[in-house]
Amino acid sequence: MTTKRDFRFGYALLGASLSAIGLAGTAANAAEQITFVSQGGAYQQAQTVAILDPAAKKLGITINQDSIPDAWPAIKTQVGSGKPIWDVVDTPTGNCLRGGEQGLIEKLDFSKIPNGAAMPEAYRSPYSVSYEFYSSVLSYSQKTFPKDAPNSWADFWNVKKFPGRRALRNHPFATLEAALMADGVAPDKLYPLDVDRAFKKLEEIKPHITVWWTSGAQSAQLLNDGEVDMEMAWNGRVSAVAKEGAKVSFTYNQGILQSTSLCILKGAPNLETAVKFLNEAVDPVNQANLPLNIDYGPGNPKAFDTGVIKPERAAQLPSEPANAAKQALMSYAWWSSPAGEAAEKRWASFMQK
Amino acid sequence: MLALASPALLVILLLIVLPVGWLAWQSIYHDGFTLENYRRVFTEDIYWRSFALTFEISLAVTVIALLLGYPVAYLANALPKGWSILILSLVVLPFWTSVLVRAYAWLALLQRTGVINQLLRYLEVTSEPLALVHNTFGTVVATVHILLPFMVLPLYATMQKIPGDLMQAGASLGASPSLTFFRVFLPLSLPGVLAGCTMVFVLCLGFYITPELLGGGRTVMVSMLVSRNVELYNQFGAASAVAVVLLLSVLAIFFVVSRFISLDRILGQK
């Protein structure tokens, strides 16, 4: 997750080719197996403990793991070659939808995925089920704002009442949503985004933005070193900085709730097993174990009813129902629509003006 | 001779010519022949702005590197052997540190709570921290630091070949030290100046990590457009068209420079 949405194409290719070499050696044994791909690091480690190992044990299958910062180019290349190596991928939900439309991702039969079928409709698509949640939140330095901290995007935009240096992500995802909320749009009335209005509002704050950050690590450093007084950042990054002793905090109010989802590559070598795994991966108890190992929220909201997550812990998580109610749920369907793609292209010229 | 060179040629063919050729091919072929990627590069504002900014930054970096590098090379050339070895080692030393680490080091120095701003405020030179980084200024400073050796080394190599007798001859004819420098030494060192400037300028055109980390998101150089385009258009072609235009600009620069000075010289031979 540390590299979520960071794009390092070289690694992508390297990862794909390494996995090709690695798997050639291990194929052709074990009764049932799948290859599962996520984003590596502490995040994948947490999944292994919470979800992958229990699922493998219960289903009696072998789960081979691979990791890659951005799966999208590899999905394209693998399916394009006609012989994909991977089965199940954990990737930002937009990739699953876009891949579904382009014939790169299998359509799911939810009758075989009862755990997924029981999830709210906004948490799944014909091609994917939500796997975990994170949020783009308003974070701030408690040194600069010991009380009366900024609590909404309107506050972030209010440079008179809340003087200080600001940073936003150098990407339209969540940033356009924040601009619209600052302009008075309700979190549940955002989509379809009024792109013109959002960019107009962004022009207003632009002179006051010190840094447009590009990686999660950078956003953490800015906050940690006091380089900015408030910024949009991913909740896990802010809590990690706070855990190390920096006086920083954030609010879930008007956060933009984002997710990664599980989806299956078109023509996956172990399709049937992959579907079985998918069901097990979003099992409420397995899902409830995830936030015990890392600061991300379960993709299946039923996880909060299992009793596995203590109330104090639940209150810290982005997808906990009360927290979720304060936030806007990102519409990946909109972002992968032509209007969304046009907005993404418009971002570059906005940045350079 | 050809037989001896062929393994090297093969490596170059496999690792440079083929991939670059493949990328160039992708820029004009995607489900059929298309010039769409180039149309975009030549008609959309953002590309023009990025190319202009990249050339401006490269020019600034080259001029600053020359002003800083010339005296260093001069000193290394003029001083006794022991000193010149020390100076040159100091010039080359940063080579062993990764570009990434050096970018972060500059961040630690230049940022609001960084060493320089703290010092300036402690000495009461400034009351507010200066914006030294997350802008073009910070990018230029760090880039100059990284590219300085590429200026100093060609200059030093050229200066080494200027016979010391010429300076003595000038002095014996009654010229002042500064006159000898400007009329004799400087003109003879010009090939080194050209070589160093070309190296620094061309290398700077392709800089990626430094502006990405120190530019604050506003300093969008051409290399950043390349990576952005892969993400935005989900195909290599859109990105490689930008890379091809940049590559052609570099080759054009080398071509023009080669009219004045042999390429061997820029790349450090002879």
Automatic annotation (TrEMBL), chain A:
Highest taxon of the lineage: Bacteria
CDD domains attached to this UniProt entry: PBP2_polyamine_RpCGA009 (cd13589)
Name the record gives this protein: Putative spermidine/putrescine transport system substrate-binding protein
Spans through the membrane: none
Keyword annotations of the record: Periplasm, Signal
InterPro entries: SBP (IPR006059)
Listed PANTHER family: ABC TRANSPORTER SUBSTRATE-BINDING PROTEIN, SPERMIDINE/PUTRESCINE-BINDING PERIPLASMIC PROTEIN
Signal among keywords: yes
Signal peptide: 1-30
Lineage: Bacteria, Pseudomonadati, Pseudomonadota, Alphaproteobacteria, Hyphomicrobiales
Gene3D superfamilies: Periplasmic binding protein-like II
Automatic annotation (TrEMBL), chain B:
Subcellular location per the Swiss-Prot or TrEMBL entry: Cell membrane
Alphabetical GO biological process terms: transmembrane transport
Membrane-topology annotation of the record: Multi-pass membrane protein
Stated family: Belongs to the binding-protein-dependent transport system permease family. CysTW subfamily.
UniProt keyword terms in alphabetical order: Cell membrane, Membrane, Transmembrane, Transmembrane helix, Transport
PROSITE patterns xref list: ABC_TM1 (PS50928)
Record carries keyword NADP: no
Pfam families xrefs: BPD_transp_1 (PF00528)
One cellular-component annotation, GO: plasma membrane
Protein name: Putative spermidine/putrescine transport system permease protein
Keyword Transferase set for record: no
Transmembrane segments: 50-73, 85-110, 130-157, 184-209, 236-261
Domain annotation ABC transmembrane type-1: ranges: 51-257
Gene3D superfamilies: MetI-like
InterPro entries: MetI-like, MetI-like_sf
